[in-house]
TrEMBL record:
Keywords associated with the record: Membrane, Transmembrane, Transmembrane helix
Membrane topology, as annotated: Multi-pass membrane protein
Family of this protein: Belongs to the TMEM88 family.
Transmembrane portions of the chain: 21-49, 74-94
Keyword Transit peptide part of the UniProt annotation: no
Gene Ontology CC terms, in alphabetical order: plasma membrane
Principal location listed in the UniProt entry: membrane
Taxonomic lineage from the root: Eukaryota, Metazoa, Chordata, Craniata, Vertebrata
Cell compartment(s), UniProt: Membrane
InterPro entries listed in its UniProt record: TMEM88
Gene Ontology MF annotations: PDZ domain binding
Domain of life (superkingdom): Eukaryota
Name assigned to this protein: TMM88 protein
Amino acid sequence: EPRSPWCCLAWTLVIGTMNSLVFLLNLLLMFVIFTVVLLPTIVVVYFGFQCHSQVLHSSARYCKSILDDNSSSALIILGFVIMSPLLVVAMAIYCSLARRLQLLVCFQPYSLALYKGGRCCPGEGAPCWARGCNTQLKAWV
């Protein structure tokens, strides 16, 4: 049955807040995974740009004794070359974690705010993070 207008507004705010928190959790998880997986690329490109004479030309000892312009250019090129496979690895890790944790199933439709008797999980009353959901439920088709 339909909810009253004030109850509908309150439930809309609750569902909107919950969906925003799930979105931020997904964003945080993605940021952490991509940062950890792309760390080698970040380090290699950083040292390449730091020691190149045309870019930053740091006065650090390792820039003067170990890295010249040619080796700095090689580091920059190497960093950008290894970025593509690492992006694929990071996305695969994120997708497998999101699927295993069922993070995309946690988004709730706003029809729960309009009608009484809606449930968070199909066939069950527990929220999706309580793991009472059907394990066969897919987050995407």
